[in-house]
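2024-03-11 09:14:02 INFO worker-7 job=invfold-0412 stage=load source=structure_tokens
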């Protein structure tokens, strides 16, 4: 991460897109816990509904506290505008409903969060949408799968849980050639480490449950559109589907986001050291971390990310049985799903986050039984290293 970038982002997370409370000058954005907003007159109500006058109407359609969060993340992602949602899945389902219809086709990274795959296979399929999950790390796989009716390309990079990367710029070029909307799930990188819109993507979304909120206490999502046209199309669907965020939730996420750059900087430094420690450990079979030179896409990570992040996965030489013993023995890392919080979390994707992905699809996507996923938090390196060492010993 360059100093210039960090200086900008350390300031940006705190001040980006923010306006001082116009009523009392509150330094922290007030929580507008109101479902509806009074009109001064019938004429004003009509003008707001007609879109002729700016102002709030009803919280499902917009709210000042939610807007403060949206403007902050739109700033960090360098987008036209953002829409906060009740969860990351709500962000994804809104996009699927906004850009797909009967007889259209979707291409998606095969190693995505398990439920991002499940919603396509079990819900979108019922509406006549067809799809292909492919290894998007090879652009040829996408090229081969494009059909005249392909409307959406969703790429998750780094991918959950394999840490495989996809070349965002190459995907964007290909998507543009074919008139396909290109969406990037930027959850694992956060806006601090990767800005897909700058690389040509059309839309970015996040599970803000993870790095952006960062404290394992809120579930939420956000969509950032690159243009007004994409924003308007998505916003219409979100307002109708109703997956909007709540003002209280937005306030907590905005508070968490203020320390996003600091948390990412701190945790990725520890993650890089832990990845090197694991890689050199005689009981560890393999480690996948974009900052290791052994990562097959190390050069791509250097090209498209500002840093390598704090997510990694690894397998022990003793396979799943050893992995299970290890995660059961840890005292500091918490055995839990989710990621991107200040506390380190560890889990076994094949039996947890990706349990409902069909076995064959899991193997094809590299979600092997021995894979353990670690989200490195902000604890001290020595303590985390000692904990992993304790777990590996217990696995012997
Ligand atoms: N996208 C990614 C990359 C995710 O990791 C998740 C959740 C979602 C979208 C969905 O967001 P949510 O609705 O949960 O806010 N990932 C989880 C995980 O790996 N463990 O637990 C949840």
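2024-03-11 09:14:09 INFO worker-7 stage=emit residues=396
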């Amino acid at each position: 991460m360059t100093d210039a970038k960090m200086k900008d982002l350390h300031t940006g997370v705190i001040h980006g897109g923010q306006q001082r409370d116009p009523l009392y000058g509150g330094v922290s954005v007030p929580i507008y816990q109101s479902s509806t907003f009074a009109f001064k007159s019938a004429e004003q109500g009509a003008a707001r509904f007609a879109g002729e006058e700016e102002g709030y109407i009803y919280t499902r359609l917009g709210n000042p506290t939610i807007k403060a969060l949206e403007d902050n993340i739109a700033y960090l992602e360098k987008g036209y505008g953002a829409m906060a949602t009740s969860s990351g899945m709500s962000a994804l389902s809104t996009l699927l409903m906004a850009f797909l219809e009967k007889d259209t086709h979707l291409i998606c990274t095969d190693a995505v969060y398990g439920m991002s795959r499940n919603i396509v296979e079990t819900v979108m399929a019922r509406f006549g949408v067809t799809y292909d999950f492919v290894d998007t790390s090879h652009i040829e796989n996408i090229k081969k799968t494009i059909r005249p009716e392909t409307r959406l390309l969703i790429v998750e990079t780094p991918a959950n849980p394999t840490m495989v990367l996809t070349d965002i710029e190459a995907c964007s070029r290909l998507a543009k050639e074919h008139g396909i909307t290109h969406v990037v799930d930027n959850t694992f990188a956060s806006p601090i480490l990767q800005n897909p819109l700058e690389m040509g993507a059309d839309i970015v979304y996040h599970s803000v449950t993870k790095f952006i909120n960062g404290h394992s206490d809120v579930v939420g999502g956000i969509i950032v559109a690159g243009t007004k046209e994409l924003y308007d199309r998505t916003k219409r669907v979100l307002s109708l589907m109703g997956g909007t965020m709540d003002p209280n939730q937005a306030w907590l996420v905005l508070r968490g986001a203020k320390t996003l750059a600091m948390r990412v900087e701190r945790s990725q430094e520890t993650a890089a050291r832990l990845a090197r420690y694991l890689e050199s450990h005689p009981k560890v079979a393999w480690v996948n971390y974009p900052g290791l030179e052994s990562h097959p896409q190390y050069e791509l990570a250097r090209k498209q990310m500002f840093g390598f992040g704090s997510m990694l996965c690894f397998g022990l030489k003793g396979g799943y049985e050893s992995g299970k013993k290890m995660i059961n023995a840890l005292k500091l890392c918490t055995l839990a799903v989710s990621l991107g919080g200040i506390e380190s979390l560890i889990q076994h994707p094949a039996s947890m986050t990706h349990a409902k992905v069909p076995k064959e699809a899991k193997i094809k996507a590299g979600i092997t039984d021995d894979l353990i996923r670690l989200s490195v938090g902000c604890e001290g390196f020595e303590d985390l290293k000692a904990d992993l060492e304790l777990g590996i010993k217990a696995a012997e």
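2024-03-11 09:14:09 INFO worker-7 stage=report msg="The mean pLDDT is 96."
2024-03-11 09:14:10 INFO worker-7 job finished
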